[in-house]
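Protein modeling request. Please complete all fields; requests missing the sequence field cannot be processed.
Requester role: graduate student
Desired output: 3D structure, token encoding
Chains: 1
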Amino acid sequence: MSETFSHEQVLEQAAQWQAAGHGVALATVIETWGSAPRPVGSQLAIRDDAAFIGSVSGGCIEGDVVTRALDTLTTGKPEVLEYGVSDAAAWEVGLACGGRIRVFIEPVTA
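Delivered output (110 residues):
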């Protein structure tokens, strides 16, 4: 989704999805360095069917974060992801802004 959502809207939607019986993961920017598309604290809520709301990167790594969040829902284990311009994977997912971003992904539990 390209629309910007507030922190409260992301968390509210995550709670609604969970109340409706969906598995939900939350991705949060925990560190940035250099040119980063979103500030620390930015969030993305991901539903078990790959629907999502919010943003951790303005779109450049969301696809990879969603895929990894779905894995987190399967394993139940939180994970820290790091993307940077020196990382070949960062170029593959589109983070060519010259910075670095760390994202914490966790399953939302009741």
